[in-house]
Amino acid sequence: xxxxxxxxxxxxxxxxxxxxxxxxxxxxxxxxxxxxxxxxxxxxxxxxxxxxxxxxxxxxxxxxxxxxxxxxxxxxxxxxxxxxxxxxxxxxxxxxxxxxxxxxxxxxxxxxxxxxxxxxxxxxxxxxxxxxxxxxxxxxxxxxxxxxxxxxxxxxxxxxxxxxxxxxxxxxxxxxxxxxxxxxxxxxxxxxxxxxxxxxxxxxxxxxxxxxxxxxxxxxxxxxxxxxxxxxxxxxxxxxxxxxxxxxxxxxxxxxxxxxxxxxxxxxxxxxxxxxxxxxxxxxxxxxxxxxxxxxxxxxxxxxxxxxxxx
Length: 311
Known about the structure:
Blueprint: H1 4-25, H2 29-42, H3 51-62, H4 71-90, H5 99-112, E1 120-123, H6 130-139, E2 144-149, H7 152-164, E3 169-173, E4 184-190, H8 201-209, E5 213-224, H9 233-241, E6 244-251, E7 262-269, E8 281-284, H10 291-310
Parallel strand pairs: 1-2, 1-4, 2-3, 4-5, 6-8
Antiparallel strand pairs: 5-7, 6-7
């Protein structure tokens, strides 16, 4: 059971730390959040602060150190902080994938994976990790998290948040197209809005990291709605057709986005006894606030999965 008061208490802790470090040491809000997490996890501060300010930081920590927080209380509290921090630094919240999308992807993953089939989840553009952590909190499974980002502060935040959520994790500060690994059970990522050019970045990310996925497993990518109309799409389709089936395409309701609405693309990597689906999952998702239409759509998706299992 989620306790809103606990969400507020955890937020008040790191918000107090971040505000103090911004006022007295000109650290950004996100840097302050990260320092608050370091202090909570390791009982150590990375920076050097006055004795008076160190005492204030200890006092803030003392207020919550004996409280048990549910994982989702921590994640929701941290998300509020990230929204504030990203607004300060980047003047946009586009870096955070909406919760409802992560929960919906978690629902689909539950349909596709049995307990012993999902041991690792990889986000090649993890940012601060809100998408992957939302999915995992919904699944309530013990899964190791792997992630990449070329922004060092986001990497530090993702590592610390994963530790706070007691998730085994490896998050690397690295250009995603230089990373090579294999054997991941699931890939989930929110691909950035990218300008059209001869080498459309989201195409490169998918093509590169499909090789990291285990045979027969799934790649979930949030894509721009005109994803298949970008320059180079024909070559991209040819390359993907050598590695994976298109399993599904779910158009998300535009109310979720201020600009640049997106869809969920689901790919399934080839493998032994993996057949191309007779009908791929094609859905136009209504608003999450339109409960009647949403429930009807979810029922249709459930039926699609039941029919698939009977094939």
